[in-house]
Amino acid sequence: MSEPNWHYIDQQGQQQGPVSAENLQALAQAGAITTETQVWTEGLEEWVAASAVENLLPAQPEAIEPAAQPVITPTDPMIPSTPTTAPVQGSPVSATETPQHAEAWEEPAAATSIYPHTIAKGGNFGTLIMLYIVGIASILIPMMITGAMAASNNLENDAVTTGAGLGMMIGLFVGWGLLVFANILQLIYLYRAWDCLQPGGATVTPGKAVGFLFIPLFNLYWVFVAYGQLAKEWNTVVSHYENTKYAPRLSEGGFLTHAIGFLLPFLQIVTWFIVWPQICKGISFMANLSSKGATGDTTGGSGLNFGPTTIKGASSNLKFK
Which residue among 1, 33, 42, 225 has the highest number of C-beta atoms inside a 10 angstrom radius? Predict the structure, then answer.
C-alpha cells in the first residue's frame, strides 16, 4: 500500500502539499513545520497540530523551550471533504500507515468517448423489398395474363381486348411507380448512412454522396465512393466510440462488389441482398442511439461517479517510524 501524502498550513496561512511523510519530516527538521503547524492526511476527519504526530518534529532538549508560534487556522482548504476546524489533541498519529477505515482514492479513468446525435429515422429493409416485389409483380402479372389470353384467342372480342390492354397499362403504371419509389427510398437510406458519419469526420457529405450519382459517366466512378468508401468509414467511426462499439458493421468486400455491380447488373442482383440489409440495420441502430440520447445515463457516460470522495471513520493511532 502506498505511503499516504500530507498537507500542511505554512506560516503565511497558505495550504501546501501533498508531500510524502519523509518530506514532511524534513520540513519539520528545517523549521518550516513547528509544533503548532496544522497538518492533515487522508483518513483524518480534522486538521491536527504537528505536535500530535509522533516522531514528526525533531527531539527538543528538555531545558530549551520551543519558540511559541501563532496558531494559524486553516483558511478555505482546497481539498474536498476536508474540514477546517481547530486542532484536535489526541493519541499520536503517524503518516506512514493508512487509516483502517480510509477509502483509497483512485483516479477516474478517462471519460468514455460518446458519439453524438445523428439521425432520427432509420431504415426498413422489409419495406424496401416489398416495394420491389409488388412493383415487379404489378408489371409481370398483367403481361402474363394478356399473353395467356392472346394465346387462347380470347382477344378477338373488342371488349376483352380493351380490358386486357387497360389492365396491363394500370399494372405497368403501378409497377414502375413502386420501383421508382423503391429506388428513391434507397437513396434516402444512403443519405442517412452518410449523415450518420458526419460527426465522426466523414470525408463525403450526404448531399454529395447521393447527388453525384446523377452525373452521367462520373457516376461510374462515384459509386465506388458512395458505397465502397461508405463501408470503410462506417467501420472506422463506429469502432472508436463507446456507445457505437456494438453497431452493425458493413461488409467492405460486399459494398465494393456492389459498386462493381453497377457495371455488371447481374452481379448487383446478388450484392443487393448483402448491402441494403446492412445499411438498414446500421442506420436503424444510429436512429435508436439518437432517441436514447448521447450518453445513456447520468453518471458521466460510463457509469463513473465523478463526485468528491468522503473519508470517514479515520483512526488516530498512526506514527512516524
Answer: 33
Burial of 244 (0-12, 13-18, 19+ CB in 10 A): buried
Which regions of the chain does DSSP assign to beta strands (E)?
A: 6-9, 15-19, 38-41, 48-49
Q: Which of 13-27, 217-231, 259-273, 301-315 has the lowest mean pLDDT?
A: 301-315
3-class secondary structure per residue, 234-265:
HHHHHCCCHHHCCCCCCCHHHHHHHHHCCCCH
What's the whole-number average pLDDT of the chain? 76
In this prediction, residue 69 carries a pLDDT of 60
For the chain, domains (ranges, CATH) are 1-107 (3.30.1490.40), 125-291 (no CATH)
Sign of the C-alpha dihedral, residues 221, 257, 130, 205? negative
CA 76/CA 105 separation, integer angstroms: 22
Q: Residue 68 gets which letter from DSSP?
A: P
Amino acid at 134: V
User: What 3-state DSSP class applies to 17?
Assistant: strand
Q: What single DSSP character describes residue 114?
A: -
Residue 108: exposed, middle, or buried by beta-carbon count in 10 A (0-12, 13-18, 19+)? exposed
| Average pLDDT, integer, range 9-24 | 76
What pLDDT does residue 207 have? Answer: 96
Which cell goes with 158?
A: 373488342
The Cα 110–Cα 196 span in angstroms is 25
- Cis status of the peptide bond prior to 18, with omega within 30 of 0: yes
